[in-house]
Structures are given as structure tokens and as C-alpha cells.
Amino acid sequence: MSTDTTPRIPDSDERGAVALAARGITKYFDGKPANEDVDFAARCGEIHALLGENGAGKTTLISVLCGQYKPDAGQIEVAGAVLRFAAPRDALRAGIGVVHQDLRQVERFTVLENVVLGTRDRVGAESERRLRDLAADVGFELEPGAIVAGLSVGERQQLEILKLLYRGTSVLILDEPTAVLAPQQSEQLFRALRVLADEGKAIVFISHKLREVTHAADVVTVLRNGRVVATRPVAGVSTDELAELMVGETAREPDVTAEPGTPAEPVLELDGVVCGAGRRALHGVDLTVRRGEIVGVAGVSGNGQVELAELAAGMLAPEDGTRAVHGDVLAFIPEDRLATGLVASMSIGENLAFRRFHRSPMSSRLWLRRAHMRDHARKLIDAFHIPARDHALPVAKLSGGGLQRVIVAREMTESPDLLIAAQPTRGLDVVSARSVRGHILGARDDGAGVLLVSEDLDELLELCDRIVVMLQGRVVADLPRGACDRRELGRHMTGAKAREDGA
């Protein structure tokens, strides 16, 4: 840091004082600005939402504030003093802690062992008492002796927050904290964050979900294309206004309207399917998807949804039970874009042509027809708003949202009999997500059966003719359209409904 004396962050009786500020932050990657002249301030006693679409610069800004990246221009102030962070540990010493999306924990250790790891404290009665007091203050019920591998996703997120509180963190930054939580878990998290804000801590959370911003935050800063386009109190701001700030006037266009489908004969049948081991295994799953219907899959992350999608797509083979697909063309939008869906070293155009390499007009008996591949790529780049001017650009150069557009464009133009889509709108802006949902509905209305895995419960409720809920690798509910709301889905996802029925 720039000084040996870390400035004191104001405490609870100085609510409203600026705890952490970015002044004119600019950060370039490959000559392009990810952040450009960004000003941002987190105040004590306040929950501040950082809102923007994928690629807007939210994560880059947070990475600068926590010492992971060094800014190319601008400065960071903690309680009014300018600091320079050489590494994340410097930011942590200054009282700034981050809960990342990928939770960084030692799974074979206990909760308490994870909390004291990296501190000078030891596992013992004193550290356990302090941990229990911290947990009780924010309403967490974690058992210090519990093994982390056995915790739910929501509990592991609570553990990450407690690790930072144990170290005396005064500014908490959470990156997409509700991405993998059920509604009830999200509500519990935001109740805890409100308690911490009321104690005088500065809370920042990154999000692209308009509903949770208007529900949980006091102030919102909106980023678009690496720049701040607005900072304002949340009170009185509508989700439509926030959407327009995020993506511009195109957000005013009406969303898709999903009428009920007309289910016909089965196109996918899973009967007693068993696959894998551990929490993510599938245990005797029965599932049928019919032509002309969208079957949604809901569940807290890590309960077998990804494995279900990959097995349905034929990437995994059942160890027991049967899988039957009745159709010629299967399209698959995988959750992991680069590892499963694309070849990073190949161009955008080549990735878009994967499904057509083997047939005319992309190829003849002897060679590929590059001109046809180029024309095909240009049409899809325009139609699906892929953020690239050159089809020859390596696909790995795209942002997460750009990668998603490439996969969606390739798979949705194949006129599938069965479409399996895992998180198809993740990372997309409001307009692009609306377009993808329209394509999904179009595939269904053209006679395809659709299996839609999504962590966006509003998306499932809007599009699906049926929703099945996964819990610990099993289907625990099969709910027809209109039979439940977000809260009811959450009760199934966390097992609360099953416990009530068994009581």
C-alpha cells in the first residue's frame, strides 16, 4: 500500500461517510477499455447495487477495488485516503472483502477451520465462540464443526461472509450473490446484508437482476460499456427505467408473450436413469419431454441439473435406466460455453459452422467452401447481434455474453426435434435475452420438444408448459403451467415442501 497506516473506516455512528471510493478508474485489456473514467462510492450503512449486463465492466471494477487488478488510471480511496493495492491481501488489510461467485473454500475442512485459515487464530473455544457470535448477529445458523463439503450452496455463501466478518472487514462486496440461490435463500441473504448495513458496514453487490436491485438496495450505480451511466437512490426507480439505463431505449420493446404449448408425442424419454456419484449424481430420474412443449428444470445449483441436461443431450451415458430420443436433430446449448460448447482456438465463423461442415453448401466431397462459411457467419452475426465485426476473430476473444450468442445462434438455426438449453440467457442483455426466449418459443411452436434448465425462475415461469424441480439428483416435483409461483418453487428447491408433506 501507499502508506504503512491503514485509514480507519468510519464506524456505525458515522453512517453515510464514504468507506470506499473509486475516482476516475480506467482499465484496458488488449487496448480496449473495460472501465473508463469510473467514479463509484460505497458508504457506511448503505447497500449499493452495481448493475449492468455481462461485459459492462462490473467485475473489472470490483477486481480493481479489491487489488486483483491495478488500474491504468485513477485512484482508490479508503476513508478519504488514497491507497494502492499490490495484491488482494492489501485490500483485505484495508477492510475490503469480496465474496466471489466461485467460493474459495477447503471442502474437507470444517466451517471453523475455514474461518480461521489464514489468520493467526487457532481452532479452539475462543475462535468458536467468536464465530458463533458473528453468525448469531446476522441470523446464520452454521455449525462450526460441520464439514464444508456437506453444506448447501447457500450455507457455503454464508461461510464466505463469516470469513470476512471474522477478519474485521468493513466493506463487503458480493459478486452475483443470488445467482445459484433459491428465492428463500436470497431473502435470507439480503436480510443478513441489511443487518450488516444497519451496523454501519458498507455493502456492495453486483447484479444484473432488476427485481433484486429494487428490492434490496438503497443506491444503484449502472454501468454500460465500461462507463457509469447513472448513480441514484433506488427508491422510486422502476425496473423499466433500470433496464433502459442498462441497454438503452431498445429495452422499451415489449417482452415475448408465451402462450401455452400443444404437447404431442414424446421426443425425449428418461426412465429410471442413474448416473454419476456424489451430490451431483442422478438417482432414478423419470422424465418425458413431448413435441410442442417446454419442460423447465429448476433447482439450487449443484443438484443434478447440469448432469440431467448432459445426459439428455447424450454427452453422458446412463449407468442404469434408459434414455430414448425420437427425432433426427438434437440441438444442445451447454452451460459451460468454452469447455463444452465452443473451440476456443477456432474462429467465430468456424464455430458457427460446426453443425454444417459435413454437408452442402459448406463443403463438397473434397474440401470446405470458405465463402459459404463466411456468408453463413455474417448472417448469424447480424441476426443474433454477436459483438464482432470479423468472423475470423478467435471465439475466445469474445466476452461471456458474446460466447453465449455464438452457441445460441449455431444451435437455434438447426430446426431441431429436441432442443436442450442450459442457462441459454445467462450473460445476455435484456434485448438479447428477449430474442433468445423468442427463438425457444418458436422452436416449440415449430414442433420441437424443449428441455430448459435455468436458474432464472421468472424465465421458467414465463416460458414453460411444465416445470420439474431437482433436489439431490432426483425429480421432487412436476408442476404444470400456472400451478406455482417463485416462492412455491423455492420451497420445492430447498426441500421445505417435502419436509412439510412428511411432517
What does this 3D model show about the protein?
- With 503 residues, the protein is an alpha/beta fold.
- It folds into two domains: 12-245, P-loop containing nucleotide triphosphate hydrolases (Rossmann fold), CATH 3.40.50; 266-329 and 415-502, Rossmann fold, CATH 3.40.50.
- 33% of the residues lie in helices and 24% in strands.
- The chain is built from 17 helices and 19 strands.
- The chain has helices at 58-65, 88-93, 111-116, 125-138, 153-166, 183-198, 210-216, 239-247, 305-312, 337-341, 348-352, 370-383, 400-412, 430-445, 457-463, 486-494, 496-502; strands at 18-29, 32-43, 47-51, 73-78, 81-83, 96-99, 171-175, 202-207, 219-224, 227-233, 266-275, 282-290, 294-298, 320-325, 330-333, 418-422, 449-453, 466-471, 474-480.
- The radius of gyration is 24 Å and the shape is globular.
- The chain starts with 17 loop residues before the first strand and ends with a helix.
- 45% of the residues are buried.
